[in-house]
Amino acid sequence: MNYNDSKGIYLMYLRKSRADEYNQDVENILKRHEEELQSLAKREFGELIPEKYIFREVVSGGTIKDRPLMKEILKMMESGIIAGVLVVDPQRLSRGDLLDQGHIINAFKYTNTLIITPYKTYDLNDTTGTDMKLLKMELNHGADYLDYYKMVQARGKLASVRAGNFIQPIPPFGYRKVRYGKVTTLEPIEDEARIVRIIFQKYAEGKTICGVTNELNAEGYIPPSKQIWTKGSVKRILSNPVYDGKIRWGFTPNKTVMEDGKLKKYRPERHDYLLFDGKHDAIVNHGLFMSVQERLSKNKSFTNDRSLKNPLYGIMYCKRCGRKISRLNVAESRGGHRYACPNKLCDVQSSRYDLVIEAVIDTIQCAIDDFDITFHNCNSSGSDEKIRELRQELTRLNNKEDTLFELLETKVYSTSVFTQRHAELEKKRQEIIGKINTLSLIPPPESCNDKKMRFKDALLALKDESMPPKEKNHLLKKCIERIDYDIEGVRYHSKVKLDVYFKF
């Protein structure tokens, strides 16, 4: 058998799985798997898979839609030119998502494409149905044991950190990541290490974090990754025990919360993290490091107040550079609080807090005044009936799809005819689904009133000076998706310009 024989082309698909060793990079894992599959190709076909037929998926995609190379392979399979796909195990094709599993199984079955692994070749058109059952078991195995793999990985990582290894993917500023056999540790980069010592020394001498930041930028010291030094980057260096020869574990764990009806992930800092002696050399001496920590601890009175003070937090962005607009705490004697872009390289001007709030109030008021126009379709009749008719049509198309598969299985249709007919059917399906989605967006009259009340609640909240900013923020997020902030004109003759995107 040849990789490009009369039966079609043979491809190789490579992807790192969660079950792989956590401490190995993607390049090494894929290289090892490629060697194993090329040996298989040599045995089975008598020659290697050409480079143009090797697909290396390096993105971490949980579903097919996030894996462009897998989508490309599935598209090639539809043409009927692919005889088989080589993978180290079936779980490389799907991570266990049930929808993806169904998509993968149907694609390989109805295009007569083989799944070839070093241990078994799966033919989903096997008359006994054995290969189909085995494949489903393999794919389900990945879903059932995903949590188990996570637990095993976490346990292995903690054991490695306890031994003094540095296992994070990106080394901190001042270090490079090195590996000696099974030991992964850090090695100082002297030019960067010198800057780290300067930061610690300046702060220990009495300079503020802001003062240290300004001096670093003024003196031209090269910052980590960004174009300029920021107070955040300086503070992270000053508080990181890695520079004292320690390894920190569990400092910013992944957290998932439900907020405004959506799952959101973030990485909060914890105070109960674990600390171990590292195998790397410290950049600053222990005495200097501890004196800096003592001073940082004394200056926490301001930072300990984590209560939300900005009612537009997470809503307003700079129209010019895309950064989140910050609320600056400025004394009344200096003009009061202001909104400003934190990007020092951005040329957008700051603006008084009250002027921005007034602009938002005006915009919400206009939206309320024009509400009947905005929702002119609210009183439309017959949308439910139209949706029912479209869903009936969708059911008929689904029945036609089943018939298509039956005709393919009984070999009434060839693969090419099936692919063409199925594509036409899918196009009609998507058109109907689009129409249903559009009609579903038309709210009933009572829904319009509810939405109007949300806007009024947000408006009253902004005007109420006694209401806590956190509550204002919560109400604003119910009706505002995003605000793009900009300033028109020049200083002393400028005007706040906001583009407000509502949640209708």
Summarize the topology.
Elements: E1 4-5, E2 8-15, H1 26-45, E3 54-57, H2 68-78, E4 82-86, H3 98-110, E5 114-116, E6 121-122, H4 130-144, H5 146-162, E7 175-180, E8 183-188, H6 190-204, H7 209-218, H8 231-238, E9 246-249, E10 255-259, E11 262-266, E12 274-277, H9 286-298, H10 300-303, E13 316-318, E14 326-328, E15 338-340, E16 351-352, H11 353-369, H12 371-374, H13 383-409, H14 415-440, H15 445-463, H16 469-477, E17 480-488, E18 495-502
Helix pairs in contact: 6-9, 11-15, 13-14, 15-16
Written description of the protein model:
By secondary structure, this protein is an alpha/beta fold. The chain has four domains: 4-144, Rossmann fold (3-Layer(aba) Sandwich); 161-303, Alpha-Beta Complex (Hect, E3 ligase catalytic domain fold); 316-372 and 447-502, no CATH class; 383-441. Helix content is 45%, strand content 16%. It is built from 16 helices and 18 strands. It has helices spanning 26-45, 68-78, 98-110, 130-144, 146-162, 190-204, 209-218, 231-238, 286-298, 300-303, 353-369, 371-374, 383-409, 415-440, 445-463, 469-477; strands at residues 4-5, 8-15, 54-57, 82-86, 114-116, 121-122, 175-180, 183-188, 246-249, 255-259, 262-266, 274-277, 316-318, 326-328, 338-340, 351-352, 480-488, 495-502. The strands form six sheets. Strands 1, 2, 3, 4, 5 and 6 form a six-stranded mixed beta sheet that branches. Strands 13-17-18 form a three-stranded mixed beta sheet, with helices on one face. Helix 15 (445-463) packs antiparallel against helix 16 (469-477). The model is unreliable at 301-306 and 377-381 (pLDDT under 50).
